[in-house]
Structure formats: structure tokens, C-alpha cells
Design a protein that fits this description.
Layout lengths: L21 E11 L8 E9 L2 E5 L1 H4 L16 E3 L3 E8 L2 E4 L10 E6 L4 E5 L5 H16 L8 H8 L16 H10 L6 E4 L15 E4 L4 H6 L7 E5 L5 E6 L7 H19 L6 E5 H4 L3 H13 L6 H8 L2 H8 L1 H20 L4 E6 L5 H13 L6 H13 L5 H4 L13 H15 L8 H9 L14 H8 L25 H4 L46 H10 L5 H5 L7 H11 L22 H5 L12 H22 L4 H8 L32 H8 L3 H8 L8
Parallel strand pairs: 12-14, 13-14
Antiparallel strand pairs: 1-2, 1-8, 2-3, 3-4, 5-6, 5-7, 7-8, 9-10, 11-12
Helix pairs in contact: 8-10, 11-12, 12-13, 12-15, 15-16, 23-24
Pfam families: 3-PAP, Myotub-related
Main location: cytoplasm
Keywords: Cytoplasm, Sarcoplasmic reticulum
Length: 717
């Protein structure tokens, strides 16, 4: 039985951004609360604009119950057109993928999003004409190929002409000065030089305007093959060893061409292997790491585990969780990428060898490895401004094809691959293993991954600096003079107010210690839920976990035999790597020195906040890292008030630093997936005759048991 609210006199209209146009709408659309199995939900209006799909109900108009962590651009029921992954229609209880022109219109619409939200809309009570308009409108605007200039990015930039690219302490690397400063910061300016030869893009449209090469490389060499075969500098280590990257020559060529190119490469290698340069180690990433196709296939399988339609689906997959997780191969790819970054770090740090990463375009896996190596070796890259500058340097200006890899224009599925998401997953492993080493939080990384699909920022919507420059100078839609002024994603004030931005900063970031203070290794908080693939039953809790009994046999018989496969790849002798890895992990952690991720089997985990945040069954009310953070913030507040009493003079300076996450004290029962999951909703557990449910029946209360996993005081440093 469905209760229809009396129509309110107040018309609910969408809040439109500058340049945003309403394209189609449908009234009397019923949005299900899909997770509880009943047909509960709310009536409202479904609209499609040139920026987003939005559902508006009576609550959309009221400002009551404002969440603490609110995005100013995208509301809870908004989906940007770039964030739509797939659209399904339900016909007589059967799901069908919707594309192109439809002969028959569905009674239900299911929208799967790239940020893993799932929306269910019932269209039974909507007028037929409105159903046709809204369904065909949504499919057309979110799924069909479009021209670059049709992106909302351009409509917004021309309608909001006063936008300025707020620098926000982030180095943009679009000037020669920025590159020279970076060379000076890393002390690489003795052996490397910033070049201006690509001004006007006369060498190559794929290269940035300015870049850095070894001093001994001539301009003629750079021009000869449009920048291919030239070692381009990424970063210099404290000992002088440098990380370089190179675009490889195409493999299929006739003999004479490949002989000439080989001779050219030999000449380059000889030049940069002589003093004052260190020995050179080359690493062809296309043969030593998974292909982009493998990465795309693994991620496509992996994300299916989290695009849950309802509660029953969740509990059905839960029983097979480990085998499903392993079969995706996503965690194994993350582990291989991290292992490669450690190998490169070993060459730079211990062997004092230059490392040259080679890839066909040097704009995909080269970006991942060079970024990870810098995050692991350079503590500046672990600050917020440093990390943002690093993404600008290696990805945005470095020429990663965001437009093609994210398939923003729906031009070709073949080019699509979640390379930047792979990087964020790898960085998250480091953030959750060594929280005090990072000035930013996992919430920052989650929000950054969401920003990939927000087309008001230019950061992730071009393939190269050349493409951005040529499209910036175009005429705007209104006949105003001057180029488009795009926003940069690094100006977080566009999406969040100061209170929400506080969630992006880590209150426990270890500031650089004073020389006389000795470093102490702090205790690491263990993850509550088993989000990694276990290899052995190490340190197993006496409590019965969600998957304990189902998987014990599986772990012992299958995964146990694969320990060597998980830890060492077969293509090289592991001794030197293993010795470096074990030796580093046997010492106390210096949060401002080299950081090596733990990569043995169960240490590689699922990024729970990003992937489970919309699934209420996966929440631990009152548990998780947020419970720890809340406790720590209470202590910090107490310390702060004592400090104020002790020293009135410094009270202003301290109060400015400490209120990092507001209002947490009053939230005793926050969800473990806070700040994304704000409500604690009950989930209906299906009656499945498995031992897992029998275990759960033995417990008085699932919530109570989850609380017992979290010891808020025992692990406090």
C-alpha cells in the first residue's frame, strides 16, 4: 500500500548553477529507499539539466536537518551527467540495460553511478508523456557521445565569467618559474634544466609547455622524434639519484626506422650514464605491470560487488565475499603497483641509481608509479598542498588523458581505464597504514575521487595542457571578450564550506619534529571489518567475524598455497627487494622519511569509505575509525582548554589549529562510514540456512557486537 502525500502548494524547483539549463522533468516520480526491501520511498519531481539529474521532494526545499558534511554543488539526490555509469529499466520485474532509442518505456528506472550510488525510481504513477521525455532525456544526455565544447564546463565558465583559478598554495606547473622552483626544492638543478622548446607546442601537443630534461640533452634531440625517446625528469632524491620517464617508440615499425631509433636511444643512454649522472636502470612498465585493459576489467568486476540493489543482494554476496573479492583481481593489481613503487624507491634510495620509467605515451602507469614513489620518499608530497602540486605536475600538466580514461564524452569504451582511481586506491593504502604521516585524510581522497565527475572544474576534463589551452581561448557563449576562466578542483571552498573542509584535514598529522625529539612509533589502529584477503589465520580475534567459518577452509586450502605468489612476482629474484623491504619494516617509522607500504597479502585492503559508504549493512554504528577520531578530538579539546588556561598569550593561535572536525562530541553513535553515511538505518536480514546466520543469531545484538570490536582507550598512544 502506497501512501501519497497531499500535493503541497509550494512548487519545488531545482537550484540551478550559472549556465545550467533545465532540459526535461517528470512529476509524481516515486524514489525507493532501496535498502530495506519494503517499497517505502518518497514522491517528488525528477529533472534533467545540462549538468545533472536531480530528484526533488518536499524535503529538498527545507534547510532542516542539514548534514554536517554537505557539498555545495551536488546535493544528496543529484547525479552529474558524467557520474552516470549505467541505466537499467525494469519491465515486468526484468532488468534491461537502456541505451539509444527506446520502443517501450520502463515502469522503473535504476541508475548506477560511478561513485557507487544506486537510485531506484518508480514511474508507474507518472504521466506517459513525462515518462518518455525524462527517460529519453536522461539516456541521451548521459550516455550518448558528445563534443568537448558541449560539456557543462564551458557553459559554467562562460556564465560565471568572474571565476579565477585560485592558486590555494598549489603549484600549477604552468610556468617556467614553477619548474625551476621544483628543481631547486629537490636540488636537481645541478644536473637537470627546465626547457622552453615546446612553447607554441612546436615539439609535441602531448608534452607540456615547459618540462625538465638532463642538461646534456640537446634541443635537436628533443625535436627529432617529437619528444619520444627523451628522458623527462620527474623528481630528484636527496642523494642526487633521479626518477625519469620516457615515451617509447611505437613497436610495429620497419627495420631501418627501428635501427635508427635504437641508435638514437643508445646515444641518449650513453650521454646520461656518464658522470655527473648516476648509473641508469630502465623499467618498461608495459611489460612489468598489468595492461590498461586488465586494470579496466578488474575494476569493472570489483565495482559490481558494491553496486547493491537491495539488502537481500548484500547478504547473498556476503557469504561468498572472499572468493568474489579475489576473483576480481583488483587488490592484486594494487599490490603489484605498490611493489613496483617500492622497487623503484630501493634503486633511488639504496642503490643511488637513476630510474627511467618507459611506457608508450608515459602518461598512464608512469604517472601512477612516479606519483607513488614521490609520496613514499618526499614528505612534502604528503602535505595537502604538496600532494595537489604533485597531481598537477605528474597528471594534469603531465598529460594524463582524463577525458579519454574517464570516458567523459562517451566517445570510446576502448580508451576507458580507471588509472587515476588506481593511484588514489594505492595512496589510500599508505594513508590507512600510516595516518600521522599525511596532512590529509581518507575523506579527502574520497572527495577527490568524486570530483573526477564534477564538470565545473577543468582539472580532470582535458587530455593535455595543449587541449586545455586551445579550448580556453575559444569564444564564450555570451559575446564577452577574453578566454574562458576555468575553476581548479584545488579550490575546495567551491564545494565545501569551512566546517566541511575541516574533514579533509588530519588532526593527528605529525608535524616535522624538532631535532632533539626522538621519533616514536605509534600504535596503528586495526581495521574492524575484514576488507582484505587473508592468507593465514594470524592474530585472529576470539570473536566470530562476519565471514570466519565460511572462509576458514577456503583460506587454508587455497590462499595459503599462494603466499609466494602474493609476495614475490616470478620475473625477478626477490632477495634484494625482500631484504630492503624487511629491513625497513624492522625499524621504527619516521613519518617524515621514507615510507614503505606493507604489501603482504592481508595488508592490502578494500577502501571501505569509498566503496561501502552507501550500503547501510556495512556500517558499524558507533564504531570504525571515526569513533577513534571522535575520542581523540575530545582529548585535543581538553588539552586545548588546559593550554589556554596555562598560557593566555598563545590562546588564539592554538584555538585556530585544534577545531579540526566540528560537532563530533555530540555524535556518540556516528556510523563508521561518517561523514558520508549520516543515518543509521536498519537492514532486513534474509533467513538463509547458513552457519553465518546461525552465528549471528547467537549474538544478542549485531550493533552491540560491533561496538565490542572497537577499543577506544586501549590503543591510545
Amino acid at each position: 500500500e502506497i501512501h501519497i502525500k497531499e500535493p503541497t502548494e509550494k512548487e519545488v524547483n531545482p537550484r540551478l548553477l550559472p549556465g545550467e539549463l533545465l532540459l526535461c522533468e517528470a512529476n509524481m516520480v516515486y524514489k525507493y529507499i532501496q535498502e530495506d526491501g519494503s517499497n517505502r520511498g518518497t514522491y517528488g519531481k525528477l529533472v534533467c539539466t545540462n549538468f545533472k539529474i536531480a530528484f526533488l521532494d518536499d524535503d529538498s526545499a527545507s534547510d532542516d536537518n542539514e548534514p554536517q558534511f554537505k557539498n555545495k554543488i551536488i546535493g544528496e539526490n543529484d547525479i552529474t551527467l558524467q557520474c552516470v555509469d549505467q541505466i537499467y529499466g525494469v519491465y515486468d520485474e526484468k532488468k534491461k540495460l537502456l541505451t539509444g532509442q527506446l520502443r517501450k518505456y520502463p515502469e522503473k528506472l535504476i541508475i548506477y553511478c560511478k561513485d557507487l550510488r544506486v537510485f531506484h525510481f518508480c514511474l508507474r504513477y507518472t504521466k506517459e508523456e513525462e515518462v518518455k521525455r525524462i527517460v529519453s532525456g536522461i539516456i541521451h544526455h548521459s550516455q550518448t557521445p558528445k563534443l568537448l565544447k558541449r560539456l557543462f564546463l564551458f557553459s559554467y565558465a562562460s556564465a560565471a565569467p568572474n571565476n579565477t583559478e585560485g592558486r590555494n598554495q598549489t603549484v600549477m606547473f604552468d610556468t617556467l618559474e614553477d619548474w625551476r622552483d621544483e628543481l631547486e626544492r629537490t636540488k636537481g638543478n645541478v644536473k637537470y634544466k627546465a626547457v622552453t622548446i615546446n612553447e607554441g607546442y612546436r615539439v609535441s601537443e602531448k608534452l607540456p609547455l615547459y618540462f625538465v630534461v638532463p642538461i646534456c640533452v640537446s634541443e635537436e634531440s628533443i625535436l627529432k622524434y617529437e619528444g619520444r625517446g627523451i628522458p623527462i625528469w620527474c623528481w630528484s632524491c636527496h642523494n642526487g639519484a633521479a626518477l625519469l620517464k620516457m615515451s617509447a617508440f611505437p613497436k610495429e615499425q620497419d627495420d631501418s626506422t627501428s635501427q635508427t631509433q635504437k641508435a638514437f636511444l643508445d646515444g641518449i643512454y650513453k650521454t646520461i650514464s656518464k658522470a655527473p649522472y648516476e648509473l641508469l636502470k630502465t623499467d618498461d612498465l608495459s611489460s612489468s605491470l598489468p595492461s590498461l585493459q586488465d586494470i579496466q576489467t578488474a575494476y569493472t568486476r570489483f565495482k559490481q560487488l558494491f553496486l547493491i540493489d537491495n539488502s537481500t543482494d548484500f547478504w547473498a554476496t556476503d557469504v561468498k565475499w572472499f572468493s568474489l573479492l579475489e576473483s576480481t583481481n583488483w587488490l592484486e593489481i594494487i599490490r603489484r603497483v605498490l611493489k613496483k613503487a617500492i622497487e623503484v624507491a630501493e634503486c633511488l634510495e639504496r642503490q643511488h641509481t637513476n630510474v627511467l620509467l618507459i611506457e608508450e605515451s608515459a602518461t598512464d602507469l608512469c604517472c601512477v608509479i612516479s606519483t607513488l614513489v614521490q609520496v613514499m620518499m618526499d614528505s612534502y608530497s604528503r602535505t595537502k598542498a604538496g600532494f595537489q602540486s604533485l597531481i598537477q605536475k605528474e597528471w594534469v600538466v603531465g598529460g594524463h588523458g582524463f577525458l579519454d580514461r574517464c570516458n567523459h564524452l562517451h566517445k570510446s569504451d576502448k580508451e576507458e581505464a580507471p588509472v587515476f582511481l588506481l593511484l588514489l586506491n594505492c595512496v589510500w593504502q599508505l594513508v590507512q597504514q600510516y595516518p600521522p604521516a599525511f596532512e590529509f585524510t581518507e575523506t579527502y581522497l574520497t572527495v577527490l575521487s568524486d570530483s573526477l565527475y564534477v564538470p565545473i572544474f577543468s582539472t580532470f576534463f582535458f587530455n593535455s595542457q595543449h587541449q586545455k589551452d586551445t579550448n580556453t581561448s575559444g569564444e564564450s557563449l555570451k559575446t564577452q571578450s577574453g578566454p574562458f576562466r576555468f575553476l581548479t578542483v584545488w579550490d575546495w571552498s567551491v564545494q565545501f564550506d569551512p566546517k566541511a573542509q575541516a574533514f579533509l584535514n588530519n588532526p593527528l598529522y605529525a608535524e616535522k619534529p624538532k631535532p632533539d625529539k626522538s621519533q616514536r612509533k605509534t600504535t596503528r589502529f586495526k581495521h574492524q571489518r575484514q576488507l582484505s584477503l587473508p592468507l593465514t589465520a594470524t592474530k585472529s580475534t576470539t570473536k566470530r567475524g562476519f565471514f570466519r567459518e565460511e572462509t576458514d577452509h577456503f583460506i587454508k586450502n587455497i590462499l595459503g598455497k599462494r603466499i609466494s605468489k602474493f609476495i614475490n612476482s616470478s620475473d625477478e629474484p626477490p632477495n634484494s627487494f625482500r631484504e630492503f623491504y624487511d629491513s625497513w619494516h624492522s625499524k621504527p617509522v619516521d613519518y617524515h622519511g621514507l615510507l614503505l607500504p606493507r604489501i603482504d597479502g592481508p595488508e592490502i585492503k578494500v577502501w571501505a569509505q569509498r566503496y561501502l559508504r552507501w550500503i547501510p549493512e556495512a556500517q558499524l554504528p558507533g564504531g570504525g575509525t571515526i569513533a577513534t577520531a571522535a575520542k581523540i578530538l575530545d582529548l585535543m579539546e581538553e588539552v586545548q582548554s588546559l593550554q589556554v588556561k596555562m598560557d593566555e598569550e598563545h590562546s588564539q593561535a592554538i584555538s585556530g589549529d585544534v577545531c579540526s572536525v566540528p560537532l563530533l562530541r555530540n555524535s556518540a553513535r556516528l556510523s563508521s562510514l561518517f561523514p558520508f553515511a549520516l543515518l543509521q538505518r536498519q537492514s532486513i536480514k534474509p533467513a538463509l540456512p547458513t552457519s553465518t546466520w546461525k552465528d549471528l543469531e547467537d549474538e544478542d545484538d549485531l550493533v552491540k557486537r560491533d561496538d565490542e570490536f572497537v577499543d577506544l582507550t586501549g590503543d591510545m598512544p
